[in-house]
Structures are given as structure tokens and as C-alpha cells.
Amino acid sequence: MEHVAFGRTGLRVSPVTLGCMSYGDPARGAHPWSLDEESARPFIRRALEAGINFFDTANVYSDGTSEEIVGRLLNEYADRDDIVLATKVFGRMRPGPNGGGLSRKAIMTEIDHSLRRLGTDHVDLYQIHRWDPRTPIEETVEALHDVVKAGKARYVGASSMYAWQFAKALKAAELNGWTRFASMQNHYNLLYREEEREMLPLCADEGIAVLPWSPLARGLLTREWGAETERTRGDAFGGTLYRDEDRAIVDAVGAVAEGRGVPRARVALAWLLRNPAVTSPIVGATRPHHLEDAVAALSLELTGDEAAALERHYTPRPVAGH
């Protein structure tokens, strides 16, 4: 696997990231479909064998147990210096007025808890998990800068927000000499392309790595329309992101996949990877073929006609996922 530049930094990452929201205690948090440690083990091992060096989790996934499981398995199977480990901060982790958010107190508290759960003295990428309207962005960016200077994170990143908000965060860092955001983890796939209007051009212009989450639209792009899984039945957030009109796009993915003789997931990921602004889509894996399809998509080149067929039915829609 050929690794790619992480935005304007010197860091090199795999062109596919293993999203670790899928791994955690299913009895804790909001992901009852998540895999426990023994079930997650083969996926971490196979990802490493395939050349994936980038692993993304968050403090809030499965109430912190995702970090615990991912940390233990990576410590078992990998050399810490060979992997790029990312986590996030923002979501509520405990009751009380300071149990979440992006205040200095929350960030300084949560980085230490994340490091303890992950079993490491630093993360490679520390990301704000959304925009916090209650905290001045200057407070957040300075706190992140201090986390980096303390050696607890190597780079900082952001996730879904409006482009004007991200521009404001970048400017705050520039004006004060604080650590610059290196990445944007945003909602982008064939069923949700609103990021093409402002966020992706901003990231391309600023040299920001783009790490799309839900690149397969919670699995909708991998199967026939209307098919249910254990995750779709328990994924309340996913139910707010897409709409019935998306069936035409899903059918187009199926047609291209049938014509190529490959699984739909490979086609949907190959389309995403055509965009030069995209650095490394975050792919979840709960079955062996999920990882195999993600890796195989790297070598699938769609024709212009195929890409046009996939894009033809898209219509503008409200912002979703912030």
C-alpha cells in the first residue's frame, strides 16, 4: 500500500483509515452493534497486515471502551511508532456542566483520560469532534496548542462544521502562533456532497488533509435499497442523514458494480478517492470483506462515464452531520 501525505505536513498515512467506532463494549454507549475486544481482534490485525497505519477513534465511542479496546489491540499487534493513532474530544463523557465540550478544562481533562484508556503517552492526531458554540474558538485552539506543546498530541484536527467556522479556527491559530489544524474529518459520500461547495475547496487551498466519515453512507451504498442490518435498526443518528430520494443513487452504484463485477462498496469508495481533496476515507469494518473491499477500492479506477452515472441523480439537500 502506498502511503500519502497528510495535508501540508510531513506525516504519511495509509489512503484508507480504519474507523474504530465499530469496536467497543456493546452494553455501553450508543452503539449496541459494536464488537467486543475478541471480535475486534482480527480486524485490527488484518488492517495492519494490509498496510493500514491510520486508526481513528473517539472518547465518546462506546463510553470510552472503544479507546480501551483499540489501545490494547494496537499495543499487542503493532509498534507504537509505526502507527498513526487518532482520537477526538467534545462529546459528553460525564454528568455536570463540564462533562463535555471544548473548553480548556474539558480538553485538558479529556486528553489525559483518552491517553490512559489508549495506553499511550501521546496521540498522533487529536481532533475536536464538532464545533462548540458555547466556547470561544480562541480558547479551544490555545488549549489544543498546549496539548501539542506538552507532547500529548503530534497534530490537531477538526470535524464536521461550516466552512466559515473552520476558516475562523484556522485564522485564530495563525494570528496567535498556535498549532494549526492539519485535518478535517467531515461527512462526505455519494449521498451527501454538500461539502463540495465550500469545505473541500477550503481544505484544498489550505493544504488540509480530508478524512471523510461515513464514506459508504452507513452501509446504504453497499447493498440494495431497503435492506436492513442490525446496525440500521439501532442507528438513530444514521436515520437523520439520508432520504428516500437517495434510492436512485444507490441503484446507480449497483449498476456500475454489476458492470464491473465488483462489490458496491468498492465502487462507492473508488468514486470518493477520485477527488484529489480526499486524503483517507474512514472505513468501519465488522465483517472480513469490509476491509478487503476498502483495500481493493484503492486500485479500482472508474471511467468518466461511470463517475457521471454515479453523480447524475444527486440533488442539493440541507446540511447534515454537524
Q: What does it look like?
A:
Keywords: Oxidoreductase. One of its GO terms (molecular function) is oxidoreductase activity. Residues 16-314 form the NADP-dependent oxidoreductase domain. InterPro entries: AKR (IPR020471), AKR_Detox_Biosynth (IPR050523), NAD(P)_OxRdtase_dom_sf (IPR036812), NADP_OxRdtase_dom (IPR023210). This is Aryl-alcohol dehydrogenase (NADP+). The protein is an alpha/beta fold and 322 residues long. It has one domain: TIM Barrel (Alpha-Beta Barrel), CATH 3.20.20.100. Helices cover 38% and strands 12% of the residues. It is built from eleven helices and ten strands. It has helices spanning 37-49, 65-77, 104-118, 137-149, 163-176, 199-206, 230-234, 247-260, 264-273, 288-297, 304-311, and strands at residues 4-5, 12-13, 17-19, 54-56, 84-89, 123-128, 153-159, 181-185, 209-210, 282-284. The strands form two sheets. It has an eight-stranded parallel beta sheet, with helices on one face. Helix 3 (104-118) links the parallel strand 5 (84-89) and strand 6. Helix 4 (137-149) packs across helix 5 (163-176) and helix 9 crosses helix 10. The radius of gyration is 19 Å and the shape is globular.
